[in-house]
Amino acid sequence: MDSSDKIKVAKETIRRWLLSKHYPSEFLEFFFRWTLLNLFYNEISNEQHEVDRVLEFGRKNERLLDRQMMKYTTQLVQDECVGEGKGDAPPNSWVKTASMRLREYLNLDKNAICSRCRKNKRTKCQQIQLENYKFGIFEALMRIIYQVRCNLFHGDKLEYESDQGRRNKKLVIVSNMILEDVLEKISQ
């Protein structure tokens, strides 16, 4: 995608946000919480790319994990992977790797989870290779929440109705609970 295409996508996202006067409160709360976390991880990292700053934050803060956060983590990964875009979009290789790592850690049956994945998404996902990388637990969790953030911030996951809309809302609600817990811990 060249620069002019990226500008067009950015403008379209801005228009959608401005036109949507009834944006779900859960999504607005997510924006607020992510903005606060962004303030923190930007200050403690020298990484050039945002995803690298998020992953570094995850690696350096494994101590933030507790029983409650693991309960939320289970809710986040017990269903199909967070896709990279709308509808049946499969996860990218990093999100798939992070999801598999968390399922393994939580002793979740990844084959059962994948078998319940939407057929079109599962077919595409089966073609995605896992990364040769061993995520830390909190690092993997942050990578998945970062994908939720990317999907919302870049306007790809604005569906509110149907099964997809309910799934988006669930991902945002669970991510909000995790972010709230993280923010409370790092602000002390």
Question: Would you give an account of this structure?
Answer:
- This protein is an all-alpha fold and 188 residues long.
- It has one domain.
- The chain is 68% helix and 0% strand.
- It has 9 helices and no strands.
- Helix 5 crosses helix 8.
- The model has no long low-confidence stretch (mean pLDDT 89).
Q: Can you give me a brief rundown of this structure?
A:
This protein has 188 residues and is an all-alpha fold. It has nine helices and no strands. The mean pLDDT is 89.
Helix content: 55-70%
Q: What is the residue-averaged pLDDT?
A: 89
CA radius of gyration: 16 Å
User: How would you describe the shape?
Assistant: globular
Distance between the termini: 42 Å
Strand percentage lies at under 5%
- The secondary structure category is mainly alpha
How many strands in all? 0
- Write down the domain tally: 1
Q: Outline the low-pLDDT stretches.
A: none
List SSEs in N-to-C order: HHHHHHHHH
Question: Helical region count?
Answer: 9
Largest sheet: none
Layout of helices and strands, plus pairs?
Blueprint: H1 3-19, H2 25-44, H3 50-60, H4 67-77, H5 93-105, H6 110-116, H7 119-125, H8 137-153, H9 162-186
Annotation keywords:
188 residues; mainly alpha; 9 helices
